[in-house]
Amino acid sequence: MTKTIGLICGSLRKNSYNRIIAQALIDMDDFIKFRWIEIKDLPLFNEDLELGGDPVTVSSFKSEIQDVDGIIIVSPEYNAGIPGVLKNALDWASRPSKDSALNRKPVGLIGATPGGLGTAFSQLQTRQILEAMQVHVLPFQKVLISQVHEKIDFDQKVLTDEKTKRYLQRYLQQFIHWIDHIPNLD
Ligand code: FNR
């Protein structure tokens, strides 16, 4: 059956390299349905805001998460960690903790940086945070894209590096296959 995959970009920057990489996923597969799940309009997390029910942006964000078969997060690394805007979004999605939109959701992690370590530290942190939320994170596989500025055509906003394209294609196939094989541990 056709899968619907949500894409969350951990950068709010207009010309984000990570957004270009996420767009490359959409462009490389006609059989998967992709939906952007935006995080830029979420308020800063504050438990007081939950008291009268979720703000509209938050409830739409949670519904968008619920409506997809899996999510791929494509995110930069800030100061060897997860960007604050992404952590903020995940905190919102984690509520209420016993019945969160993210509970048991299959998630894949991809990151790109002009630097040399491909967002490795940020991905480790994100994995740890998601596991605390009882999210299924694709095991073993990582997509760490370093020197990303050399792998894209910035004017056209497209990924051009063939090796990275092949790697992403393979990752996507593994992610989709894995979704149907996650053990039910309830
Ligand atoms: C960065 N950058 C960065 N890169 C990296 O590989 N490791 C890091 O720890 C950091 N730290 C960091 C902190 C802050 C506050 C900023 C603004 C940037 C550089 C970062 O990878 C670069 O700005 C990317 O272009 C951001 O991704 P997008 O917005 O292009 O997707």
From TrEMBL:
<dbReference type="GO" id="GO:0005829">
    <property type="term" value="C:cytosol"/>
</dbReference>
<protein>
    <submittedName>
        <fullName>NAD(P)H-dependent oxidoreductase</fullName>
    </submittedName>
</protein>
<comment type="similarity">
    <text>Belongs to the azoreductase type 2 family.</text>
</comment>
<dbReference type="Pfam" id="PF03358">
    <property type="entry name" value="FMN_red"/>
</dbReference>
<dbReference type="GO" id="GO:0016491">
    <property type="term" value="F:oxidoreductase activity"/>
</dbReference>
<dbReference type="InterPro" id="IPR050712">
    <property type="entry name" value="NAD(P)H-dep_reductase"/>
</dbReference>
<dbReference type="GO" id="GO:0010181">
    <property type="term" value="F:FMN binding"/>
</dbReference>
<dbReference type="InterPro" id="IPR005025">
    <property type="entry name" value="FMN_Rdtase-like_dom"/>
</dbReference>
<dbReference type="InterPro" id="IPR029039">
    <property type="entry name" value="Flavoprotein-like_sf"/>
</dbReference>
<feature type="domain" description="NADPH-dependent FMN reductase-like">
    <location>
        <begin position="5"/>
        <end position="149"/>
    </location>
</feature>
